[in-house]
Amino acid sequence: MSDIYLDNNATTMVDPAVFEEMKPYFCEQFGNPSSLHNFGNKVGFALKKARKQVQDLLGAEHDSEIIFTSCGTESDSTAILSALKAQPERKEIITTVVEHPAVLTLCEHLETEGYTVHWLEVDSKGRLDLDKYKSLLSDKVAIVSVMWANNESGTLFPVEEMAQMAAEAGVMFHTDAVQAVGKVPINLKDSAISMLSLSGHKLHAPKGIGVLYLRRGVRYRPLLRGGHQERGRRAGTENAAAIVGLGKACEMAAEHMEFENTQVKAMRDRLQEGLLAAIPHCFPTGDPDNRLPNTASIAFEYIEGEAILLLLNKVGIAASSGSACTSGSLEPSHVMRAMGIPYTAAHGTVRFSFSRYNTMEEVERVIEEVPGIVAKLRKLSPYWGEDGPVENPGEAFAPVYA
Amino acid sequence: MWDYSEKVKEHFYDPKNAGAVEGANGVGDVGSISCGDALRLTLKVEPETEVILDAGFQTFGCGSAIASSSALTEMIKGMTLDDALKISNQDIADYLDGLPPEKMHCSVMGREALQAAVANYRGEVWEDDHEEGALVCKCFAIDEVMIEDTIRANNLHTVEEVTNYTKAGGGCSSCHEGIENILTRVLAENGETFVAGGAAVPAPAAAAAKAPESPKMGTLARIRKIEAVLDSIRPALQADGGDVELIDVDEKSIYVNLTGACTGCQMAAMTLGGIQQRLIEELGEFVKVVPVAKESLVSMGA
Ligand SMILES: Cc1ncc(COP(=O)(O)O)c(C=O)c1O
């Protein structure tokens, strides 16, 4: 039996058709797109086509609004730092406590440099308080940065509405849409979003290629200065093969959008339903009614996530966890903590994330394997009795901090 | 994913002595649920001989926490309490053919559960004297508390000094910003401000050796001086259950044997760095402290 990959929010397989498109750009069409000769010229045309493919997936009005970068993280940094540089009189940022580290860590760092960061909190289902958000918008705010979809729970934020509110207040709005692009329909020309980040490797393009969408007319300062590539907005010779691959991947994502929101969603729903039915004391995290079609994040109480992942891996199932131990940090996922999930459950969250390459047979196999793994670890847990949690788990086992 | 040894995997996939021991007369609960690792160790001790007849564990935690718990119970069964208490966290890690630096705390938890269970058996109250901070330097497994304490104890002011005393920051440089933040915080306690700067580029070993040229000491005087420095450090080591012994001295190298608790990787790194720094200061020349005897330590000296 082959292994089952359910960690598509971490990264995806490069689609074989994408790989095919990329191949000529290594040993044959290797020219520099800026060059005048034939070697470079053809590459220039290929980039133009790719830019159009990205534009179409995003529903952007102009292809010049697409800036190729090296990854999602670079796009996020470029967007936020650009807004600060271009509007030096504005010293405030609005973001959320559940952002990906690409935004979170940058904003924490900016706090140490004297910027004021307003951290929007979330409720137990990972939802934002829009009234609170509205009250923070002012002409002191340089940029709002709110993710479109959360990478851990899959929860979607109402970014289109929030962008509109920001626009009304005259504030730039950036969204980290790394998890959303290719999974939910996006139409930027009908939105008020100023900037958007995406990352190729989350939608079956290779790693190390990203895009910053920059709405026409939005004030901008480049992060990397140098050559005139990307109209001087991102210097550095283009990663031509990866850009071509990303273009193809965007085209394919658009073709599969319906599949993603029907078939892929059905697999995700079946997995969640099967696991909840078979395993006591587990629950989905985030907002199950408003989330990515491919993501199920399930908290298995009284056990720890890394241990679950290792046992899953042993039977050929790949998933990921928000436990502290998987990342080597001392705290469980900031996303789970922000939603107020107790430690005994937060450490035991497992994220299953699908792609169009998964199958229903795989789902059934996972539903068969997981209950035994959870039971095995619960047998080892000091919080678990004969066939259920011990009474008053918090009191029955209250270890001394070590 | 972590680079776990076969032994760790073995004890995780197929743990020994899982569950509470029937008729246990010593129980130790340690760990922290917020950190995601907690362990209950139950012991059945024969009262006359104080031999551990049986040991069992219940662990909430990751792969290495479960493996460390399993290893611990295997190690202590059949031992007397006094012998069992001599087991260090490094012994547990060694039994498992090593643990990744981020996971060494799992072995610490094992040792502390044992201390807690023995205290419980003896009717004593076990006090946790161990404080663990967030891991700062991943290359040498040095945590925040260790760095803070060392800065305070030695009045350090630069990242370079922190590296010399603790080894933290001596590897990949990724934690330099973190160390600067700690320095800023700790120095602020005394109203001092941390100034970054100083040498941004590490001096090559030869330049570092250019200590003030003092009149050359005779061999005997030099060795006496070295002994005196080691003597002054010794009480601190012994307080932690360790010791240091001078083995040999040649031109630039001073060979020592570290024993006891200081041989744990984290402590050894700090101890060696600290001893070397003191010797350089006292002798007024560059010397290298080279650990000998225990094989694992020789490679660390470089
Ligand atoms: C929401 C989100 N933002 C940003 C990133 C970073 O993207 P990249 O790995 O391309 O830098 C990720 C990837 O994990 C993500 O999930």
TrEMBL record, chain A:
The protein's required cofactors: pyridoxal 5'-phosphate
List the catalysed reactions: (sulfur carrier)-H + L-cysteine = (sulfur carrier)-SH + L-alanine
Span of the signal peptide: none
The UniProt record lists the Aminotransferase class V domain at 4-366
Subunit structure and binding partners: Homodimer.
What GO biological process terms are annotated to this protein in UniProt? amino acid metabolic process
> What's the EC number here?
2.8.1.7
Which EC main class describes this enzyme?
Answer: transferase
- Keywords, comma-separated and alphabetical: Iron, Iron-sulfur, Metal-binding, Nitrogen fixation, Pyridoxal phosphate, Transferase
Domain of life per record: Bacteria
Q: Which family does it belong to?
A: Belongs to the class-V pyridoxal-phosphate-dependent aminotransferase family. NifS/IscS subfamily.
Tell me the Pfam families matching this sequence.
Aminotran_5
Which GO terms fall under molecular function for this chain's record?
Answer: cysteine desulfurase activity; iron-sulfur cluster binding; metal ion binding; pyridoxal phosphate binding
Role this protein plays = Catalyzes the removal of elemental sulfur atoms from cysteine to produce alanine. Seems to participate in the biosynthesis of the nitrogenase metalloclusters by providing the inorganic sulfur required for the Fe-S core formation.
UniProt organism field = Marinobacterium mangrovicola
What protein does this entry describe? Cysteine desulfurase
> Per the record's keyword annotation, is Iron included, yes or no?
yes
Automatic annotation (TrEMBL), chain B:
Keyword Iron-sulfur attached: yes
**Cofactor annotation:** [2Fe-2S] cluster; Fe cation
Which keywords does this chain's UniProt record carry?
A: 2Fe-2S, Iron, Iron-sulfur, Metal-binding, Nitrogen fixation
Amino-acid positions noted as binding [2Fe-2S] cluster in the UniProt annotation, renumbered to this chain: 137, 139, 172, 175
Give the NIF system FeS cluster assembly NifU C-terminal domain ranges: 226-290
Pfam families per UniProt: Fer2_BFD, NifU, NifU_N
Q: Which residues bind Fe cation?
A: 35, 62, 106
Entry keyword annotation includes Iron-sulfur: yes
Q: Name one GO molecular function term.
A: iron ion binding
Q: How is the cofactor bound?
A: Binds 1 [2Fe-2S] cluster per subunit.
GO biological process annotations for this chain's record? iron-sulfur cluster assembly
Occurrences of domain BFD-like [2Fe-2S]-binding (ranges): 135-184
Q: Report the residue ranges that make up the NIF system FeS cluster assembly NifU N-terminal domain in this protein.
A: 4-124
Q: Which PANTHER family match?
A: IRON-SULFUR CLUSTER ASSEMBLY ENZYME NIFU HOMOLOG
> Tell me, what does this protein do in biology?
May be involved in the formation or repair of [Fe-S] clusters present in iron-sulfur proteins.
NCBIfam families, A to Z: NifU_proper
* Family affiliation: Belongs to the NifU family.
Write down what this protein is called: Nitrogen fixation protein NifU
What is the source species? Marinobacterium mangrovicola
